[in-house]
Design goal:
Blueprint lengths: L1 H6 L2 H10 L36 H6 L7 H16 L9 H21 L4 H24 L1 H11 L15 H34 L1
């Protein structure tokens, strides 16, 4: 029939192929969790005494091979904290807070590479980056050696904030010139008073 011929025409077939959605290949995004060995046990079962005597199947179920993303992030955070911790009981120093925020930021960066339209997690990442920048700025100002060691161990590349450049307006320029003039007049009056005082002391 005529309808069947039109439906099977090469022009319509080409148009249908052109309008078909193209499947994009998902790029392999490198993760900061790739260096974790799959045979490593989960955090809750690492220190269990009888873990060495269990079956291989059970051990595999309790390893990172079957672990979720959340459990892997916990172990990675613990590893970063151990690098910069001052003592075994240190859980709240500035270095430990920087390590925990670094693990959180890297996890959110990987998530946003796969889901770039996730605005909520982007906001969380920016807040964590701002908080980490404040902690690093404090360490750089108070204990510079600790700041350098923390950045080196955690692989953080710290960049200085740009200098604040205020756009000069006409009102600001007039105000600045007036302040300079007032300061100069005050210095002149101060010098005259000091001169008169010395003259009086010399006469006495």
């Amino acid at each position: 029939s005529l309808f069947f011929r039109q439906a099977c025409s090469p022009f319509i077939h080409t148009a249908r192929c052109y309008a078909r959605a193209v499947k994009r290949k998902i790029k392999d995004i490198p993760s900061h969790l790739d260096d974790l060995p799959p045979t490593m046990l989960k955090k809750d079962y690492a220190n269990v005494p009888i873990i060495n005597s269990v079956d291989d199947v059970v051990r595999r179920l309790l390893s990172l091979e079957m672990a979720s993303q959340k459990e892997k992030v916990k172990i990675k955070t613990q590893q970063l904290v151990e690098k910069v911790r001052r003592s075994p009981s240190d859980n709240g120093s500035h270095e430990v807070q920087v390590a925990m925020l670094t693990a959180k930021i890297r996890t959110l960066e990987e998530h946003l590479q796969r889901h770039p339209k996730d605005k909520n997690n982007r906001r969380r990442m920016l807040m964590a980056m701002d908080q980490r920048k404040k902690l690093l700025s404090y360490l750089r100002r108070v204990r510079y050696s600790t700041f350098e060691n923390t950045c080196r161990l955690l692989g953080i590349q710290y960049s200085l904030p740009p200098a604040y450049n205020r756009r000069p307006t006409k009102r600001w320029l007039v105000k600045k010139a007036f302040c300079i003039k007032v300061f100069q007049e005050a210095q002149k009056l101060k010098a005259e008073k000091l001169k008169q005082k010395r003259v009086l002391q010399a006469k006495a």
